[in-house]
Specification:
By secondary structure, this protein is of the alpha/beta class. It folds into three domains: 2-244, 2-enoyl-CoA Hydratase, Chain A, domain 1; 268-429 and 469-496, 2-enoyl-CoA Hydratase, Chain A, domain 1, CATH 3.90.226; 432-465, no CATH class. Helix content is 40%, strand content 18%. It has 21 helices and 16 strands. Strands 1, 2, 3, 4, 5, 6, 7 and 8 form an eight-stranded mixed beta sheet that branches.
C-alpha cells in the first residue's frame, strides 16, 4: 500500500500548491493573494475540507490537451467561521486565468448543491476572466447551472459573493443573484462587456476601473454592498457579516451574550435629533446610540444614501434596521432608496431577522425624472416588501412622516406589529405650510395680507392635525414614548414578538413590481 498512498499524497500536494512559483509571484505582484491564502483568512484555522481536488478538464478541450492541472482553476469545499459551517468555492487565477470550463463548473455545481442540502451559507471568492473560450458552449452551459442554483438557493441559504479580481461577462451575473457582494478597491472589476468591446461597438474609451471598479459599483450602480481597501479587511468583514446571519431560512440568527444593558436609557438622543423638523442630523448616530455596543454593519453605505440599511444587535439578537437619512435629500425616498430598502427588507424577512424601521421622511422626492423613471413602480417595491414580510416588525416615527412615504415606511396600515413615535412626531398628508397652500389657496389669493393669513392657517393646521398625539388618538400609533427610553422599549417589543408566526395565503409566489 505504500506506493499508492505515496502517489496520492504527491497528487494532493500538487493540487494544493498549484502552478509554478512564478504564477504565484505574478499574483502577488498584482497586490492579490492566492486562493489558499484567501481561504486561510476566511475560514477558521485548519477547518477547510476540500472536495474534488484532483478534478481535471477533459483532454479533448480545444488546444488544452497538454495542460490539465488539478483543481481546474477552482478550489471547492467547506469549513467553519467562528465554529459555524460554511461552504465555499474560490477561483484560482493562476490556472487558466480562473476561467470557467466544464469540470470547473461541475465542481461549483457540486458545492452549491451540498450547501443547500446541508443548510449552510455559501461564499464565492471570485477572481476569474469569465468563460473558458477553448471549451466553447460547455463553458456557457456551466454558467447556466450556476445561475439556476443561485436562484433556487435564494432565500434558503445566505449567499455571499466576494470580488477579488476580475468578474467579467457571464461570471458577473452570479454575484448579481446573490444576497451580498463584497469588493476590493483598486482590485475588483465587474462588467458584462469589457472596455475593448465598448470601444469597438460605441467608440467610447473607458478603463476597467471606470467601467466596473469597486467604487463605481458601491456608489453608482449599487451592485456592491461592501467595499474595502484590501483583501484582508474584506474577508474579515465577510466573517463579521456571517456572524449576524442564520445558517438557513429554517433557523433564527445566532444570539450572543450582551454586556450592554437592555434597560439602558440614553439622554443623548434628545440632542442627536433636533426638534426642529427642518434641521438635519445623522441617523447613523441615532442607530449607534440604540443598538448593542454601538455596533452597526451598514449595507450599501455609499449608494442611495438618503436611506440607511444595516444589521445590528439588540439584547444580543440580530435585527435589520431601515431608517431615513435627513442629511441626504432631507430623508425623502426616491427610486434608488426604495430599491435598496426593499431588497434589504426582503432579505431580512427571508432569514428570520426582525425589522426595526426608524421614520423621519418628508415624502417621496418630487421631480419629472423620478416620475418618468418609474418612482411609482420602484416605490411599490418597498411597499410590497413590507406588506409581504412576516418577521417581527416595529416602526418608530422620530419626527416627520408625511404622505405616501409614511405608509411605505412600515406604518400600521401596511402591517407593522407595533407602531411607536417620539413626542416630536408629525404624521400627516403633508407639512403645515404645504397643506395651507392647498386648502386655503382661494382665501390666500384674495387676502390683503396673505403672509399673515398663511401663518395663521398653518398654525391652525398644526394644532388640529399635526400635534404628536393625533395619530395615537386614532389608533395609528400604539404608544408615544420618551426618546430616552427607545432602546429598552424596542427590546421589550421584540422580546414580545419573538415567537411571532404568520402565514401568508397559499400561492406559488407573489408578483412584485420588479
Amino acid at each position: 500500500m505504500t506506493d499508492p498512498v505515496d502517489r496520492l499524497r504527491r497528487l494532493k500536494e500538487l493540487a494544493y500548491h498549484g502552478p509554478d512559483p512564478e504564477a504565484t509571484a505574478r499574483q502577488h505582484a498584482k497586490g492579490r493573494l492566492t486562493v489558499r491564502e484567501r481561504l486561510d483568512l476566511l475560514l477558521d484555522k485548519g477547518s477547510f475540507t476540500e472536495v474534488e481536488a484532483l478534478r481535471r478538464h477533459r483532454a479533448t478541450a480545444f488546444g488544452l490537451d497538454a495542460h490539465r492541472p488539478y483543481t481546474d482553476g477552482v478550489v471547492t469545499g467547506w469549513g467553519t467561521v467562528d465554529g459555524r459551517q460554511v461552504f465555499v468555492y474560490a477561483h484560482d487565477f493562476r490556472l487558466f486565468g480562473g476561467t470557467l470550463g466544464e469540470a470547473h463548473a461541475q465542481k461549483i455545481h457540486k458545492i452549491m448543491d451540498l450547501a443547500v442540502a446541508a443548510g449552510s451559507p455559501l461564499v464565492s471568492l471570485n477572481d476569474g476572466a469569465g468563460a473558458r473560450i477553448q471549451e466553447g458552449v460547455m463553458a456557457m452551459a456551466g454558467y447556466g447551472g450556476v445561475f439556476r442554483r443561485n436562484t433556487k438557493a435564494s432565500g434558503v441559504i445566505p449567499q455571499i459573493s466576494v470580488i477579488l479580481g476580475s468578474c467579467a461577462g457571464g461570471a458577473a451575473y452570479s454575484p448579481g443573484l446573490t444576497d451580498f457582494v463584497f469588493a476590493v478597491r483598486d482590485t475588483s472589476q465587474m462588467f458584462i462587456t469589457g472596455p475593448d468591446v465598448i470601444r469597438a461597438v460605441t467608440g467610447a474609451s473607458v478603463t476597467s476601473d471606470e467601467l466596473g471598479g469597486a467604487d463605481l459599483h458601491a456608489c453608482v450602480s449599487g451592485v456592491a454592498q461592501f467595499v474595502y481597501d484590501d483583501e484582508e479587511t474584506t474577508l474579515a468583514e465577510v466573517r463579521a457579516l456571517l456572524s449576524l446571519l442564520p445558517a438557513n431560512n429554517r433557523e433564527l440568527p445566532p444570539v450572543v451574550a450582551c454586556a450592554d444593558p437592555a434597560d439602558r436609557t440614553s439622554d443623548a438622543l434628545l440632542d442627536l435629533v433636533p426638534a426642529d423638523g427642518n434641521r438635519a442630523y445623522d441617523i447613523r448616530r441615532v442607530i449607534e446610540e440604540i443598538v448593542d455596543d454601538g455596533d452597526f454593519l451598514e449595507v450599501h453605505a455609499r449608494w442611495a444614501t438618503n436611506v440607511v440599511c444595516g444589521l445590528a444587535r439588540l439584547d444580543g439578537h440580530t435585527v435589520g434596521i431601515v431608517a431615513n437619512q435627513p442629511t441626504v435629500l432631507a430623508g425623502a425616498l426616491d427610486i434608488h432608496a426604495s430599491e435598496k430598502a426593499a431588497r434589504f427588507v426582503r432579505f431580512c424577512d427571508a432569514f428570520n431577522i426582525p425589522l426595526v424601521t426608524l421614520v423621519d421622511v418628508p415624502g417621496f422626492l418630487p421631480g419629472v425624472d423620478q416620475e418618468h423613471n418609474g418612482i411609482i413602480r420602484h416605490g411599490a417595491k418597498l411597499l410590497y416588501a413590507y406588506c409581504d414580510a412576516t418577521v417581527p416588525r416595529v416602526s418608530l416615527v422620530l419626527r416627520k412622516a408625511y404622505g405616501g412615504a409614511y405608509l411605505v415606511m412600515d406604518s400600521r396600515p401596511v402591517g407593522t406589529d407595533l407602531a411607536l413615535a417620539w413626542p416630536t412626531n408629525e404624521i400627516a398628508i403633508m407639512g403645515a405650510e404645504g397643506a395651507t397652500e392647498v386648502i386655503h389657496r382661494r382665501e390666500l389669493a384674495t387676502s390683503t395680507n396673505p403672509n399673515a393669513l398663511r401663518r395663521t392657517r398653518a398654525t391652525e393646521y398644526r394644532r388640529e392635525l399635526l400635534h404628536p398625539y393625533h395619530a395615537a388618538e386614532l389608533g395609528l400609533i400604539d404608544d408615544v414614548i420618551d426618546p430616552c427610553e427607545t432602546r429598552p422599549t424596542l427590546i421589550s417589543a421584540l422580546r414580545m414578538l419573538h415567537a411571532k408566526h404568520e402565514d401568508l395565503p397559499h400561492r406559488k409566489h407573489g408578483n412584485p413590481p420588479l
